[in-house]
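Contributing new records

If you add data, match the layout below exactly. Sequence lines come first and carry their own label; structure lines follow with theirs. Keep one chain per record. Anything else will be rejected by the validation script.
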Amino acid sequence: MSSREFILNQIRQSCQTEHSEAPTVPLFHQNSVGIVGKFKQSLIAMGGQIIEADPQDPYKFVKERIAESKVICSVVPEILGNRHLTETTEPKELQDIDYGVLRASFGVAETGSICLTEKDLFINTLGYLPQHLIIFLDPKQIVENLHDAYARPEWKQIHYAALHSGPSATADIEGVLIRGAQGVRSLSVLLIE
């Protein structure tokens, strides 16, 4: 047995025998009234966009937005894409996607964040490589703050999750803000059950 294997086996054994419960984090609720309005305000402050659903066709804006795009990857049944993901799709194959369309597990009003899990993304790079993301979010799945977010069951039931707050952005020392520098250029959220 090599020294590498010996060390890895020791770590595996240690992980199997030691188990500790996560600490109980108190919840700090301020005002759950107007939680959707707070989410919208926070998302816009982070550079995101709220899509208002048309009563006649809730997906009208999304369909119009993606109509002229070359490569659309949708993992929601309501919108048809032309790049389909399979079990054998390599993450790097998503590098040329114009629009990624998916559903978030939940949102956080305090930060305007949406939680994307491995189940939401199907392939993790779907949250980072497309030029634009359109996210469907059930307004009933918006929690007040990060304490509520981390109390959700998703964190214990999945291997991967990330909180996204607007499009990718970076700022230099002179305070010039550039959106889409290292990831998606736009993040739009359609609030729909």
